[in-house]
Amino acid sequence: MRSRLTAVAAAFAVALGVAGAAPTQARPYGFLATPTDQLAVPGYVAGFEVTPEGFLYGGYGELVFRAGPRLVGLRAPVRTLEGGRYPVLRYGQRFGGARYDLDVFASIVAEQPVAFVRVTLRNTSARPLRARWAVGVRYSGGALKANGVRRFRFPRPIVPERPGLITQPGTPFALGWSYGFGAGTIVRDGGVLATFAPAPAGAAVELQRREGSGAVRPSTTFGLVEYDVPLAPGARRTLDFRMPSAPVPDGSIAAAELRAASHVAHRIALLQRWRATFARAMALELPERRVQEAYYASLMHILLPRYELPGGTWVQPVNKLRYHAFWLRDAAIMTQALDLAGLHAEARENLAFFGEWQRDNGQFISREGQLDGHGQALWAIGEHIVRTGDSAFARAMLPRLDRAIAWLHRARLADPLGLVPESDPRDNELVAGHLAGDDFWAVAGLAAAVDAARMLGETERAALWDAELDALRTAVRTRVGAAAARNGGAIPAVLDHSGGLDWGNLWAAWPAPVFDPAAPIVTATLAHARHNFREGLATYGEFHNLHHYLGFRVFQTELVRGEQARVVQGLYDSLAHTTNTHGGFETGVRPYARRSVDDNLAPHGWFAAVLVALVRNMLVRERDGGIELLSALPGRWLAPGRATIVRNAPTTSGAIDVSLRPVRGGAVLRWNAAVPEGTPLWWRLPASARDVRVAGVALPASPGRPPALRLPGRAGDLRIAWRVPARTSSFDGVTAALQRAYRQRGATPPD
To answer: Bridge partners of 102?
Structure first.
């Protein structure tokens, strides 16, 4: 197999530009000053962190890099993804007249994930020079915090109490380890921690068993390999390194495979696999590169940390870093995003594991006190059934749905308010009681289950569940309405007393319309939430820390309300806080401050999921038994030559293609929907367009928001005339405004 990969590599390396690291691109925008990234191979538990410095951190050690005449530690927080979407990271740094560019990814060698590193040393000056580079290993960098966790590093080892709970393969630190060198390997107690490249022609290599002579600490560097490479003007040399996720015995067959693994061959194979995956997803071509790349990269951030258990069941963790664990709440959101994008096979694999968290009494729960997971599990399962029409999966899930709904019925009968029982999640709302979000999700889950039963023709079951849904929805509206009246009109986090943080209360009208999106109670709740926004994001906690994904439920609600400008601004504000590699964080960042989060490390899977869902719903979304197209487009996308193209968008009615191609003075809209005859299709006119005219069509009245035009038939095209203002919002404009706001407050701006 290896010889075949090598042959393929030889054929395609030049075409793909992977003989060395690609030339440095223009600096991409990134919000976090200390970003982290993950490297992994789907299906495998172990993975790697790319630290803020650019080092590789795994369960058994950390591979550190040094460069320049004085061999100082690399500081390379600016990174890019191959093609803006694939899990090949590229980053580097300049020292004097030389650049040191890294090309990093993970692949499988000897049946385990391995981090591949290729560093290209390039002389960018007009005179000869010597480029110096060094690698070494240590147990861990990062300053030790009061809670015993190191900054910007995930804790390890962690053995899960049961499959799906937080896990991190690795080993604890030991003072008595013995380090040395093998044949091209850095070794600890006989196990290979890393392989290193042979010296290029004319270069000198020096090996140091240990740096310094003081007390040994986790941060002490061992196995230093230093290169001194002569470079003519414009010349370059490449050095390859590999780091296994777990040490392999030095001198073993696995060690030989590790040393022989081809960087180019594995890189090509990795890209081929990911291209095949994305080929099954909804395809987007968007006028703004940042939005398009964020959509695809977010899918990658969801898929990358998934791993397979020995029995063949797949687990959807949040990431490979601090949150390398399964929660029903996170996994439900992430799985539905995969279904929205058309990656139904991966979604089905995820949902099979949900059953492991259903108790004998029928309740779905993954953490004590977190009762929102029950409704979220029902919702994710029901959504998948309706979106795929997978009757075999649906039949297999019916007994679980029966037991889950029976548990909910019994729990409500025993509850004095007739709601989901009191809970104490010790997270999110940070309050105990009857939580609004638990009930909103129970309604959403029941509604999805009813739809699934109807799809299967289970009329009696659907009628029974629908009656339960009506009773629950009535009780929720009554209790929530009373609580909102005591709270100035806005829905509070907890219904039976004061306190708590905004969380589940923001799901009142989406994804299930417990309340009409235009209802005063929803309007008041949105206004309350937006009052606490900072930098365009929702805030969380007493210090009003930025929360990167909390506000998306506000944006989705505004989308169904037809508030296009708010939705577009929300998307831009959210993207303006992503990393260079389109990763989102959770919270812990003060507004207009240091832009650093050292524990809940990016990328966060929930952020990735809600980003995918929002972009998809802005372009294609279900409503009123039909499909609405292009519900919210940025004004920048209406300029001539900036086409918006959506292909193979899956919906509950069928797949849809749609494109909007602006021309001078208007645009051409084309659509082709593989949906049943009579399915309503609408096109929502862009809010930025003025004086809109469609030949032979009278535009419907729509007070307060742009109208939605009913399209004639399942396929066709319309020629539209309009006027678009010269100045409209854009990602670049929003980031520039954010940078100005930071400077005005004396803070270092993102760049």
So the answer is: 91, 119
